[in-house]
Amino acid sequence: MSINTVEPQTPGFVAAVSAAAGAFFGLFVGTAQGSGLLGIVIGAVLLGTMGFVFAGMAEREKALRWIIFAVFLVAGFALGGLSVALVGGLFGWFAGWFIFWLATSRYRAPLAPYLTPGQVLWHYTFRVIAGAIFVFLITPILVVMPLSFNAQDFFTFTPEMLRFDPAGYSLKHYEDFFNNPDWQQALWNSLKIAPMATLLSVGFGTLAAIGLSQPHVPFRRAIMAILISPMIVPLIISAAGMYFFYSRIGLQGTYFGVVLAHAALGIPFVIITVTATLVGFDRSLTRAAANMGAGPVTTFFRVQMPLILPGVISGGLFAFITSFDEVVVVLFVGSAGQKTLPWQMFTGLREQISPTILAVATILVVISIMLLTTVEMLRRRSERLRGMSPS
Amino acid sequence: MKLSKLSALAASTALCAPAVFAEEMANELTLVSWGGAYQASQIKAYVEPYLAMHPEVKVVWDESSAEATAKMRAMTEAGNVTWDLVDAVASDAMRMCDEGLIEELDHDAVLAAAPDGTPASEDFGELLVSDCFVPQIVYSTTFGYRTDLVGDNPPDNICAIFDLETYPGKRALQKRPIDNMEWALYCDGVAKDEIYDVLSTPEGVEQALAKLDTIKDQVVWWTAGAETPQLLADGEVVMGSTFNGRLFSAIAEQNQPIGMLWDMQSFDLDGWVVPAGLPADRKARVMDFLKFATDTQRLADQAKYISYGPARKSSAPLVGQHAELGIDMAPHMPTDPANAGNVHVYDYEWWADNRDDLDAKFQAWLAK
């Protein structure tokens, strides 16, 4: 008898765990239908009974799983048409898999044989919690995407959409974004402001980080704290202060005013990321460069800059996103002529709940994903080239 | 030859004179409005025609009318007013006028007369509620209900909002005491002409809040006009108050299953105000635009795009059909006799005096 015995579980155990899973799903379905408690009870009873009945029939697993899947699919279709059938089918597939996964003790197979039942339980509970958090974070972003193809002017899944009727979908909100001068002006403003603010943040932030990493600079901590303060002070306070200050010196409502304000917000990110990379920077390299006759500027661009580049780039990315995403400061410091995308989205949400906002959000999400993927790929490539990564 | 050249020069100089005058007008115009369907109606009715006449002008929109008073205060304090012409509701205009944030206007001098020569002050009549204010439209805050959620018994009485038995479900109400307090008292049996007398007493306020208490846990409070149409379209609420133009657009343009409940609708005015102390060139442009945008034809044109009643008496006969849908606009106007059978006359003066006090009480009640 080997240590790693895999024996079928008792129907009671399967029923109990299945019932717990059923209650978990029932909570969501029930809440959506108006009564969470009822959902929990129905889900627990349904899956618990199924677990109890099917636990002893593991030898006919394949056929039973198909039957469960088909029954849920048909039940969903009967209850609410195609979209509910899809949900029912998915759920039936999961239920079939889950019950036999428990009943045949397959869940125990990938784990070390010496784990206690408590540890096994925690192993899977941990994964469920992590998955739930992931779903919680990502669902609001995903829901936006199908809604942006809504044929109506509301944030509502229409019956046509739920039936997957092509008439319920349209590209008109994307058309509106590309044809509406307000949105185009806002996009153009954002594209003019964010790169300029990023450039300033990266330039000043990198210089400040390098300067502040020199041991002989006096008041390093105080200067650092002041430079980082825009990140810590509530945004509305910075914004109101900037508004009155910029008004006095004639910068309020100008392009450069907004760029400067956004640069001030972006600098802390650059300082923090560059300072972090400088910690791993070997100072003897600059001395070696100086020893070979390079001036400080050459040393910086040829030796130091390439090594701290990942920090500079990720700081610049944060600065860009800060500016591209920022609505409070621009509402104060900008005038209507500097209306940026977030500003336009903000007024759009308040004055006219138009799915054009969702179309824009979808486009921005896609662009952000592409941007981050590119940066991550570049980073991995440079690490590989420098031999810092084992792969 | 020489003489004719000279005279030609003189003539051209004379011709140029008005042009030189026109050049003293600033060519950028920052208009402040509400966004959405309302701003779209302004663009179609008079901003695009004005730009067609004056191609050198560039219009910038700022959708900040909701916080017009606060922003005007901040701009004036900072000495940097970037707005040229502001769209505001009457009560905001009165407040800004009292604080000297906006210009007092001689209506007959700056506005166009009616086509038959009636001076502007008579054409607008009693709607000129403030010296600083040029009214454009009459709108109302009224109720819409889901036609498919009320069964065979569609509500025709304002008190349906307090009737949870006949019409179960959530209601959307604006997150402010104005109108809600009056409707609550009216439905608690207070006669229409005594509402403000009752509301002036602490007991009256208690009575109104007690009536609102009966539906408090069924109320979704809204702050932006677009929320109620969204909630109705979602079926989240069975009925809700909002501006009548928003409901019109949800019903007529978006084909939503929504019905109008006009009973005890609350009239209000919306119009233009001019920030105080604009530089001469900007002010000249603003006045030129204002005269054009508030003439009889332009105000009637606006009603082709949104169901708000024009503020000029002379515009009313010119209101025709919707520009795109081709339906008659008159039956959708809050001022139409069929809709205005029982209206609530909102008392600006009373609210100007009591707003701060009641706001505080209302917010405290909300938080309870």
Automatic annotation (TrEMBL), chain A:
Transmembrane segments: 12-30, 36-56, 85-103, 124-149, 193-212, 224-246, 258-281, 307-333, 353-378
One Pfam assignment: BPD_transp_1
Key word Isomerase present: no
Membrane protein topology class: Multi-pass membrane protein
Residue ranges of coiled coil: none
InterPro entries xrefs: MetI-like, MetI-like_sf
Keyword tags: Cell inner membrane, Cell membrane, Membrane, Transmembrane, Transmembrane helix, Transport
SUPFAM superfamilies, alphabetized: MetI-like
Record's keyword annotation contains Nucleus: no
Domain ABC transmembrane type-1, residue spans: 187-375
Localisation: Cell inner membrane; Cell membrane
Similarity comment: family membership: Belongs to the binding-protein-dependent transport system permease family.
Protein's name in the database: ABC transporter permease
Organism: Ruegeria sediminis
Source organism phylogeny: Bacteria, Pseudomonadati, Pseudomonadota, Alphaproteobacteria, Rhodobacterales
From TrEMBL, chain B:
InterPro entries noted in UniProt: SBP (IPR006059)
UniProt entry keywords in alphabetical sequence: Signal
Keyword Signal attributed: yes
Signal peptide (residue range): 1-22
Pfam families: SBP_bac_8
Keyword flag Signal: yes
Name of the protein this chain belongs to: Extracellular solute-binding protein
